[in-house]
Design goal:
It is a single chain. By secondary structure, the protein is mainly α. The protein has one domain. It contains five helices and no strands. Helix 3 runs antiparallel to helix 5. The protein starts with a helix and ends with a helix.
Length: 114
């Protein structure tokens, strides 16, 4: 599968890469399996801190890129759990909110640097 679809999308730095990879594989006919006995260790706090504006900007940029890549087309609607319930208006509204948050935070960070 990696030979066919490549590695993770380099346009996403922090979040959404795993979902993007799954959708890419599924859209090309690959089956995704779940391992219920898998153990994942994740340190809490570092990535979820809302105090780190630099990290918040990266997460918002990733979210917007993922949405622009997947949510505007029929592939996501066909493959996603909630896909059949999505409307173009819902998608556009969520993207508008994310973009607004991204640009607001970007301006806040720039103002703090001055």
């Amino acid at each position: 599968m990696v030979k066919e679809i490549g590695l993770l999308d380099e346009n996403m730095q922090f979040i959404c890469s795993d979902a993007d990879y799954s959708f890419t594989a599924r859209s090309r006919g690959w089956k995704i399996l779940v391992s219920p006995n898998a153990i994942i260790e994740h340190s809490l706090g570092a990535s979820s801190s809302s105090q780190n504006e630099w990290l918040n900007q990266i997460k918002l940029a990733d979210q917007i890129y993922f949405a622009e890549k997947w949510l505007s087309g029929d592939v996501y609607k066909r493959l996603a759990y909630e896909g059949s319930k999505l409307t173009m208006l819902m998608i556009a509204d969520e993207l508008k909110k994310s973009r607004g948050n991204f640009y607001f935070r970007e301006k806040s960070v720039a103002m703090k640097k001055k």
